[in-house]
Each structure stands twice: as C-alpha cells, then as structure tokens.
Design a protein that fits this description.
There is one protein chain. It contains 9 helices and 11 strands. With about 300 residues, it is of the alpha/beta class. The protein has a single domain, classed as Spore Coat Polysaccharide Biosynthesis Protein SpsA, Chain A. The longest helix has 14 residues.
C-alpha cells in the first residue's frame, strides 16, 4: 500500500498567532497553552523518529496556519508539502484554533494519497514498524476501542465520557480518504456545529472517534479493532506534568522498553517546570540524536 503522512502543527508562541488567538478567545480555556505550545520542538523529533523507524511513506504533509512553517524544516525537501488551513478549510470556518475542525478537513488536502497516516505533532515512533501495524490482511486497524465495542455516544470530544480515555485516543491512524469524507456525512447538523466552533468544546464531534464509529458500523468487514491488551504491547500514552519524579520514571522506563509508537502530551499548564522541560528535551535529543533529512543544515 502506498501512503502519505499528515501532521497538524501550529506555533502557539508566534506573536501574530497570539494576537489573533487573543482576538477570538472568549473564555480562559480558549487560551490553554497546552493546545498550541511548541516548547519541545516535538515535531522535529517526530520527523526524526519517522525517518528512523517508519520510512516507507511516499510524502509528508504538514498542515498549519498561514504563514507558519517550522523554522528548522527544509521546505525544499522533495517529499515535503506545506499546506495551510486556508487551502483546505472553507473561509466561513476561519480562523480556527480547534483541532476538531482542522482534522475534519484532512481529506481535502491537495494531492493526498487515498490512504494516509495522520499524526499529531506529539506522536513519535520508538521501534521499526511497517504498514502492517495499521493495515493487516486487507483490514484497517481501528483504535479508540477497548474491546472492539462501538458506542455512538462516544463520538464527542469529552461529552458523555465517563473517564479519560487517552490510552486509546492518541495513536497514529491510517485513514482512508473516501471513508473519512463519508463519516462526516453521517451527522451533518452536529458536524456543522463543530466546524463553527473556533475553539475546542466537549460537545464537538471528535474526528478520530467519529471515524472509529463509522468504520466499525458500516465497514466492519474491512476493520480490525485493536483491543486494549494488544495496544498496551505496542503503545504508551504519557502526560508531561510538573511532577519531576514521574517524568524521571518515564524516561527510565523508556530506556528499558520502547513501544512501537507513543504520545508525549503536554500537561504542564500555564507555567512549565524548568527541570521537567530540561529533562524531556534531553530525553528527546538522546533518543533521536541524528537530524532527519527534513531538517535544514
């Protein structure tokens, strides 16, 4: 299978972006820095991990707000395409600071392959893998389920969730472009309401959850749900918090066992702990010391 890679990324510290963000923000959580901050250059290390462990892709697309481009990124790389929000998202929904909105238009990226793997910028690879991790025996491997269940009420971004499900919601996802588009045709009113939300809301439709629901309901014969016990052998979800001891334990654990892929989720609040930041930066540099071909020299 030929496939592309898609990342979403923004630099929440860029002055013009901050100005626009402040203009539209209405409540404190709209300004949550954890959603926009790029304090670890995580995308750079994700690129390094991608090239080290999963380099059978065709092209890499980075979807971001105009005119942003990561300063370290070699925009002349033949396998790289920078795509800005206004190239895929209709004007009436812009500007948007809502990942649920941005992700809902992934299928509109110009030139994207029929099947592509979507990653947030805090997803990394830890072992050599192949497309079999996401497509096996003619079936798409479907995450976001504990035991293969498919619950309609779990398609929202937090609304009706009984407890946090980060362990099953932060993996790279192989997306079929046609199926992704069709999933967004199921609930047009709720989709429209979501796309009008400039900032994330618990009642937004969550793209990955919607896709899980659609695939398991309408294409079960093409789907292979990944159950929690198998996922635990492949994946680790980690929150970067201010608890230095917990972060040290994470680094030590990663030295003893590196999962196939993992997520390092910024949970540092308004004022990141400097010792934690130092530790995580060192971990990333030690684990991925070689610059990728996508970096400027």
């Amino acid at each position: 299978m030929k496939f592309d890679i898609v990342y979403t990324w923004v630099d929440g510290g860029e002055p013009d972006y901050i100005e626009i963000l402040n203009k539209y923000a209405k409540v404190k959580k709209d300004l949550n820095p954890e959603r926009y901050r790029d304090g670890f250059n995580m995308l750079k290390y994700s690129f390094r991990s991608l090239e080290m462990y999963f380099n059978s892709f065709n092209k890499v697309y980075v979807l971001t707000a105009r005119p942003q481009v990561p300063e370290w990124l070699n925009i002349d790389h033949p396998q790289l395409e920078i795509v800005h929000h206004d190239q895929v998202i209709p004007e009436e929904y812009l500007p948007t600071f809502n990942s649920n909105v941005i992700e809902s238009f992934l299928h509109r990226i110009p030139g994207i392959s029929e099947n592509f793997i979507y990653l947030c910028d805090d997803f990394l690879f830890g072992n050599r893998i192949s497309i079999d991790s996401f497509y096996r025996n003619g079936k798409y491997r479907i995450f976001n389920t504990l035991f293969g269940e498919n619950l309609r009420w779990r398609i929202y971004d937090g609304f009706q969730d009984i407890f946090g499900m980060g362990i099953i919601e932060h993996q790279p996802t192989l997306i079929n472009k046609k199926f992704w588009k069709e999933a967004y045709e199921l609930f047009p009113d709720e989709v429209e309401q979501t796309r009008k939300s400039r900032f994330r809301d618990d009642r937004n439709i969550c793209p990955i959850k919607l896709y899980r629901y659609y695939m398991l309901k309408y294409h079960r014969d093409k789907s292979d749900p990944v159950k929690i016990w198998e996922l635990n052998r492949l994946f680790r979800f980690h929150k970067i918090t201010k608890n230095l001891r917990k972060q040290q334990k994470f680094v030590q654990a990663m030295q003893e066992w590196s999962p196939d892929y993992y997520c390092m989720n910024d949970d540092l609040g308004d004022h990141p702990d400097s010792e934690v930041v130092k530790l995580i930066k060192k971990f990333l540099e030690d684990k991925y010391p070689e610059p990728s071909g996508f970096e400027t020299t």
